[in-house]
Each structure stands twice: as C-alpha cells, then as structure tokens.
Amino acid sequence: MLASLSVATLIELGEQLNNANVQLCFNGPFTSGIIQHFGAALRAYLQHEQSDETEVTGVFSVYIEMAQNIQRYVARHSEGLAAKGVGSSNGIIVIGRSGAHTSLIAGNWLLSESVGPLKSRLDEIRALDGAGLKAMYKKQMRSAPVAEGEGAGLGLLTIARHAASPITYELQQRPTGLTFFSLLAEV
User: Fold this and answer.
1) Could you please report the per-residue DSSP string of 88-141?
2) How far is Cα 113 from Cα 175, in angstroms, rounded to an integer?
3) Domain range for residue 67?
C-alpha cells in the first residue's frame, strides 16, 4: 500500500500541509501511548515556537480532550465501526496556525445513530458565552458523573472554554450508516 505513495504524492501532500499552515498532524489509532507521546511532542514544539505559556497550555488541553474523545468513542463502538469497515485507525488531528491563533481540527468516523445526541450537545455548547460555559462546566462537575458510553461531557466543555471563538463542527453522512465528524477549535 505504501509503495503506491510516490515521491510526487508526498511532495504534493507536503505542499498542501504547508499551504494550510499545518504544524503537526496525526492520522491513525489513538491509543493511550500515542496520545501521550504525540502530546509530549506537541508541547515541546509549542514551547519552542510560542512564548505564551497560556496558549501552550490551552492548545495542549484541547489536543488531549480531542484525542481522548476519539479514543473513547472508538473503544465504545469498536464492534459497530468494524462491522462497517472502520478499524482502530479511526481518527485524525491537525494542528496549525491561523492568524493569531492555533487551530486544532479533529475528525473521526461515527456510527450515524450517534450523531443526534452529539449534535444537540454541540449546539447547546455553541450557544453559550464564556460565563455560560463556566457555569455549565461547574454544574457538570458537581453533578453525577456521565455514565459510561454517554460521552460528550466535560471534554467538549473544556475545548469550548479554551477556544478563542465558538467551536465549529461539520458532519458528513454516508449511506453506509457512517458519518464523518470534525470539530474545530481555535486557541
């Protein structure tokens, strides 16, 4: 399979990533070890490139939440995803500069039946301002823990709280019962 990637294809991919101001990108399985090692590389890269520790911490926190959301979703739905031809390499995170902010975009395949609750939660979060996000975060911290498998709890709130503008998302449904979900946060 890799043999089909020619030098020209790699050059084109590299140029596309450079033109999009991509600093780091990971596509593959989001295991705990990979999340940890890529996170360490990201933190080192950000500390080298940026002097603002608040932004470094914010970007790192958003990365961790995005990566863990992918990891947990794939773990909870591995059988359903596998039945539809999606394996453990079900995620991508792209990190780059966008003006004065660092942009993080995460994406992964979802079972289409998961989309409704996620969309509702994201729309609820997107409608809140900073004070509303803080209040919802505190309320959720005081409430009972989210039941295993429900997801979309504190992680999305953490991402939204670190974002410089409202988080955005896209859903691209396929007739196979899969939907590709992407989430963008600018820190």
Assistant:
1) S---EEEEEEETTEEEEEEEEEEEGGGHHHHHHHHHHHHT--HHHHHHHHHHHH
2) 12
3) 2-186
Contact 187, 55 (CB under 8 A): yes
Cα–Cα distance, 164 to 102 (Å, whole number): 10
Q: Are 183 and 105 in contact (CB under 8 A)?
A: yes
Predicted confidence (pLDDT) per residue in 68-96, tens digit: 999 999 999 999 999 998 987 789 999 99
Reduced to 3 states, what is the DSSP secondary structure of residue 179? strand
User: What is the Cα–Cα distance from 126 to 122, expressed in whole angstroms?
Assistant: 6
| Number of domains the chain contains | 1
Helix (H, G, I), strand (E, B) or coil at 173: strand
C-alpha dist (Å) from residue 13 to 102, 134, 153, 164: 21, 40, 35, 29
pTM: 0.88
CB 107 within 8 A of CB 87: no
CATH number at residue 143: 3.30.565.10
User: CA separation (Å) from 3 to 15, 16, 82?
Assistant: 20, 20, 25
> What is the rounded CA–CA span in Å between residue 86 and residue 180?
11
